[in-house]
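User: My instructor asked us to take a sequence, write out its structure as tokens, and then describe one feature of it. I'm not sure where to start. Here is the sequence I was given:
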Amino acid sequence: MKISLRKILFLSFSLILSVFTILILSFQYDREKEFKISQLETTLKNITSLTHNYIISNNLYLTGNIDSLSLMKSLIPGNDIRITVIDLKGNVLYDSEVENYSVMENHLNREEIVASKISGFGAKIRKSHTTGKSYYYYAISYPDYYIRTAKLYDIEIQNFLNVNNLFLFYILTLLLLAGLLIFVITGKISD
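Assistant: Let's start with the prediction itself. The structure tokens for your sequence are:
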């Protein structure tokens, strides 16, 4: 059975266009996901830096008055941010979500803390052993302690981190229009 030139051209162009579209979609999906994660991590990093500056400027670490962070925490908008200060041995010095944080288990082996020891910062989505809630954790290693900030990983943050499907709709619509155009153009070619 002989395949017509029109079918060969149509299938060839359709295949090339489909592969190109898949590559664009995967690239754009990855870029948008990275951008949204970067936005969230920037927010958590800023809160971590603010916490560190507050500790330093008020000599909270030297005086052992880390509890005073509650005042600073109350000024941060949103009640779904968690701040934890951990000493270099893994003992929790402050936790904004836990009232009796001095009896919390050692945090030195928490994944975000381990990563911050290695590279200066660490991030991880996981369920808290203490509160039972899931958080997006971000930790920074400082010379005397670790500061870990976390955003409650609820439906709001999950939706924020999801990629916008509008781009997918536009690309698929363009793919269909291009396929229709290829079909019309190849229809004008006679065998």
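For the description part of your assignment, you could build on this observation: The CA atoms of residues 37 and 161 lie 7 Å apart. Try explaining in your own words what that tells you about the chain.
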